[in-house]
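Objective 1b. Sequence-to-structure analysis of beta-N-acetylhexosaminidase.
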Amino acid sequence: MPVRSLPPVLLLVFLGTWASALASTPAGPPPAPPPSPSAPVDLDRVEALLSHLSLEDRIGQVMMVGFRGTVLDEEVESLVRGRRVGGVCLFKHNIHSARQVARLNDGLRRLLADHIPPFVALDQEGGNVVRVSDQVVRLPGNMALGATRSTELAYAAGRAQGEDLRRLGFNMNLAPVLDVNLNPHNPVIGIRSYGDSVSLVSEMGRAFARGQQEAGLVTVAKHFPGHGSTSTDSHEVLPVMRETREEVLTQMEPFRAVLQEGLDGLMTAHVAIPGLTGDSVPATLSPQVLEGLLRRDLGFDGLVLTDELEMEAIVQRYGVGRAAVLAMKAGADMVLVPWRPEKKTEVYEALLDAAHEGELPPERLEQAVRRILIAKLRRGLFEAPPLLEERLAAPPPPGNDEVAHLIARASVTLLRTKEGALPLSREARIAVITAEPSLGEALATRAPRVTQLTVPAYPSPSRRAALRRQARKAALQADVVVVGVINARQLELVTAAAATGRPVAVVSMGLPYLTEQVVEARAVLAVYSYQPAATDAAAAALFGEIGTPGRLPVNLRELHFGHGLELTGRKQAAATPGLSSSPASPSSSQEAGR
């Protein structure tokens, strides 16, 4: 894409970060664009709207619901229009194409055309949480962004994603993730985090949220006050943070930093924080956390949405209906109930009963609905969008499709390499063993003798022995082997390939912590993502087309935050098939700390 075709913010990115990636020079954090103030809200209009809502309407407004299927039917209409819900959240099972979901979103809005327009939300985080895959930028993900150290790229990512989602009729995104991934064994955050540095997560989160909000999308960051140090998944059990009050407050710093930018909303975490609250009540249901810490101490007056109330961390102890009442009493403004139809009925009736009986005070319900209305007015939900066909016919803003590639190429991190291991020779016989086909495809477009063994990401125990044999066979027929690692299931394939004596290069497309277990590899690259932009960047780096400017956004046991090697030359050697003589040099200590 010609430089002149990029909009101003991406022109700066292109001239700075893209050039840095090609030159193999780590990009420092350029100053992010200044925040723009939120659109003023007519508070008299808010009060007028509020005064016309019945109690049943107000209960509907505080509900964010989901449903099965990809089209509107009587069941969906009964739920959305019948309950007059405040928001709808779509998931992967609701989406099979951009055009289809744009029509679905328009239909959802029409269901409430004579009432309060709904939030139409999704959680399009990038990386391994992508709901819409076509006609939108597919970001490599937060940890890849953390490896770039570029707040300008983070802003561009939020802006591009917000513009693309708005074009499809979404008006809310449940992102970014602001959890600090302090636990390498965290089962639910991982590469969804920018890293394990509080300051890095704070700066990247601020820039991303600002970009997404400036694109007009209601931005709900998550999971307050932090889920990054836990060792269990709240979908299954209630995680308990064992840290002291001071440690919890430190982990919460990214949320405080983003709140200062005028964040629209926060999603709560189903985690117990006894060091902060003195009990085992989940943060989602805790007045000490929501009304005390968030509202009083941090001064946040934006929207608070719960995480899914149907998670086992909540269901096991409280039940969904009771939890909805407790969450509202604690200070939440909306409750997320996305799955079973009977649970939506349970929540609606529990909230209505609590309001009738006085357990849910009218002023608390009114306060919640007021915040919902303010958010909807601020982001223009009451304004009719352009016609659907006009939006679909219009191409995305120039440069949006380049953002993912800019991030991916700036994030490539060379963790270790032996002399002569990189770059690969284009004349070599290269065997690619991977669970992500796009890695092999990216290599095959660059070299004529690439063969690919595509393996399941999560093979059954009965298949593992056969896969090891296939990996060994593929390696024996090659000069060099590239193994793409997404999760721990691929580690034994690295061992099987290396046992043949063939040189092995590993591309880590998931958690970088796994790279410490591939001791047999002669070169190890981390790209933190299996999205196509990331696998293409990995292939480009393996062949020496680009440098390796990324820096570790987390600490490993032996490699520390900020580590990253650079190839100092790209002249290929003819002596060893598949390899070159280009040495790698470590970054300077000054560069490593960026």
